[in-house]
Automatic annotation (TrEMBL):
<dbReference type="InterPro" id="IPR011990">
    <property type="entry name" value="TPR-like_helical_dom_sf"/>
</dbReference>
<keyword id="KW-0547">Nucleotide-binding</keyword>
<dbReference type="InterPro" id="IPR041664">
    <property type="entry name" value="AAA_16"/>
</dbReference>
<dbReference type="Pfam" id="PF13191">
    <property type="entry name" value="AAA_16"/>
</dbReference>
<dbReference type="GO" id="GO:0005524">
    <property type="term" value="F:ATP binding"/>
</dbReference>
<dbReference type="InterPro" id="IPR000792">
    <property type="entry name" value="Tscrpt_reg_LuxR_C"/>
</dbReference>
<protein>
    <submittedName>
        <fullName>Regulatory protein, luxR family</fullName>
    </submittedName>
</protein>
<feature type="domain" description="HTH luxR-type">
    <location>
        <begin position="844"/>
        <end position="901"/>
    </location>
</feature>
<dbReference type="InterPro" id="IPR036388">
    <property type="entry name" value="WH-like_DNA-bd_sf"/>
</dbReference>
<dbReference type="GO" id="GO:0006355">
    <property type="term" value="P:regulation of DNA-templated transcription"/>
</dbReference>
<dbReference type="GO" id="GO:0004016">
    <property type="term" value="F:adenylate cyclase activity"/>
</dbReference>
<keyword id="KW-0067">ATP-binding</keyword>
<dbReference type="GO" id="GO:0005737">
    <property type="term" value="C:cytoplasm"/>
</dbReference>
<dbReference type="InterPro" id="IPR016032">
    <property type="entry name" value="Sig_transdc_resp-reg_C-effctor"/>
</dbReference>
<dbReference type="InterPro" id="IPR027417">
    <property type="entry name" value="P-loop_NTPase"/>
</dbReference>
<dbReference type="Pfam" id="PF00196">
    <property type="entry name" value="GerE"/>
</dbReference>
<dbReference type="GO" id="GO:0003677">
    <property type="term" value="F:DNA binding"/>
</dbReference>
Amino acid sequence: MASFVGREHELGRLRAEWLAAREKRLRALRVVGVEGPAGVGKSELLKRFARGFDGDRVIWINGYQHPVSPSYDVIRRILRHLGVPPADLAAVFGDPEPEAVAARVVPYLRAAGRLLLVVDDAHTADVKSLAAIHLAVHELYFDPVLTVLAFRPGRSKYTHEGLQDQWRRHFDSDDGVLLTLRGFSVEEIMTLADRLEVAGLTLPVARQLHEYTDGIPLYATHLLRQVGPRGITFGHDPLGAPDSVARAIAAQIASFSADSRKLLVAAAVLGRSFAVADACALSQVSGPAEILEGATAAGLVEEVPGTAGREFAFTSLAIRNAIFYDVSAGSRRLLHAAAADRGVAPVLWHRVRSVDSSAEIAQEAVRAARAFLSGGRLSLAARYARHALELMPRGSGRAALLLTAVEILLIAGDASSAHGYEDEIAGCPAGPWRDYVAGYVTLISARINPAKEKLALALRAVRTGAAPGDPPDLHARIAAQLAIAALVRLEREDMLRYGTEAIEAGSEERFITAHAWFARTVGLALVGQAGQALSELAGAHLPGSPAGLDGRVARGMIRLWTDDLPRAYEDLSACVRHVEQGEALRIRQAQAFLGEVEYRQGRLIDSVATTQAALGNAVVNQRYWDLPVLNALACYPLAARGEWERAQEHASAATEWADHVGTHVGRAYAAAAWATIAQARAHHEEFLDASIRLEEHYDAREPGCHLFGPARADALSLLGRPGEAEKALERFMPVLEASGRRSARAVTARVRGQIAAARGEHPQAVAHYKEAAGLSADLPLERGRVELALARSLHELKPRRRAVAVLRSARERFAAAGADAYVLLAQELARELGHTDEVADDRFAGLTGKERELAHPLLGDQTYAEIGAALGKSHRTVEYQAARIFEKLEVRDRREFRKYYGDEG
């Protein structure tokens, strides 16, 4: 395994056991068992644990023994590690009984001093060695020796009797310590992808990967690296197994009889679980009981409970897939055909995989794809749409199937496959359906102007009446895509016009009307009618809502813009959780704007993770028009955290993609990215340049789309140009007065304070800052910016201790959010005003950024579970990280931590 994820609880327990052994604390046997299936990370866990043994001795033995290895092979290797001369080994094994061998081994182990003894793959070790080690550790009761055995679980009938008997009783007793490793959770798989630098793994795909791999890290790592998120989502066939697993399985079944291999291959073609009768029929093997007994003993299959032995399942998908690919494609095709003839479900899948070309099966596949799409099973819809295109021969009937299948691919999110058919679509007979699909492909490719031309041509034609064979709701489909095109171009009237036209034209397909609802309601918000939009979306969360998932995403975005952050988070996070399979178009927006909610709430680490996931997904699925916005949103938290290189990379990418796409939305967000960086660095000239570009490209009547408010006036006031700032602020006021948006009012009040301060009118400035502070209570970064400005004016007034208190508050607020860029600004202001010692907070100087982020909530009254929920961490992770913080700060527990490091301390 290349990356280590999680396992904090297990590491903590191992360290505690070693501490007890090292300090000779009285307890039962100092033996730990680490149990888990192959590939789950037992060895990686123990390697990570052993890294901390500076100056202490570690002996690491693998239990595997060669068929011709001598008896006590593991003991012999332990003694060699201890430096026992070969001449002395004969005396150790003079009496071959385990009791005698153990008695002679104990002095060598005792003489080693503080010792960690690891037996990896202990289930493969020789019985006599395990027995001798078991007896020896009883004699090391008072010695600083910790013995750790790592082994695979198994049924007593098939697993090594030595481990199962001697050790299991100890591990199952009150004195035993058994750590059972299970596969990663979905969240840990997402963390693994981040560590591997695999972009585009969304929560739905992570769930899919978890289902494929049971969370086994080795298998998950293989698929992330070799297949990637897109292949996991839209792949045709079973995903391959890691090379090491495939080789091991191939070697294992090579020793089986011919009938055994035939039966297992047939079973693999049927799926992870299979009916014994079906596997026998396909393989033409009779008498399967003995074969399945042997495969069960080998750990390849297991009986499905409650089926009276009629159904079995492979113990993992990795094993099933390794066997599936161990035979030729031609052999698998014949088995699929036999399964289809026998009526084994899913029959259509077996039929699809049994032929190279068939118009009949292609038509069945595209009908299945349409049904899956209507049912929201998007990855299956895309998969069967591709099958249909591959199986449909050239000639009559292909054009209609092509247009249907490509539209399904686009809606399901597989734009990459759809782009491959663009030239063929252009060669289809002219008509509104052809122009609509061609325009849709072009739109997804971010070629907005030509897409709009094709869609407008299609709409003009369909308004005169649908052509024979065209979808009955083609009018609604075309108008919905024109509404989306208008949205990305910020053409407000067209958003509303086409969105309304699509809704009125009507469609039985919920995804068509959902697109229209999204465009119409977001358009309403951008023209200053957010209240009406929210009213129309009041039931967006209810089952059967015509606005669908798109409507709830729109509502979450509008709630974000209207400063209702808690309910925006509720909507957007629910949308991200809602999609169990595939990649709906709107999920990227849901993730990205959820990341902006987290940014505004000061949850910067969460915001980084969320926006990066949205961006990676867009890149993998070639959603180019989203890239300016998504790169900008990814820039925001990075800039606040002071990660300048990454923030600038995203701002540059936003600018490049905005120029490529050529939309006002893209250019406005790119400008906002640069403004965020300039603001966090206090580079006022650059902030002014970016704010001018922002105003040029964003003239909508909803000021809550960003947190800059009167950005140009803000920059001018910071540059000491109050007259120009006041004029710029006057131009902004009609938009503010029309919306009354609280976040914009907060920034406006701060800017008024900065204008007054630039004129030396500090009492008036303080009054404006206090108003701004009240309006920005739930916006930590803006509240902190207000406090920095307020501290500067208070310093000019008497007494100056008020400036110190406010400046300290700002610093603490930024530190709690992990906003290191702003912490630096607070420190620089403290130096400038001569308050360095009074403002400096050295309490957590020895902690990392992530530890500081956790340290602040630990000072409060929240439970570990509540803190974990707020930070997106598990209870166990918070508990483990808290223990590390307490250790670094030399306190015994959370009570002492609060006492010595809280405000009262």
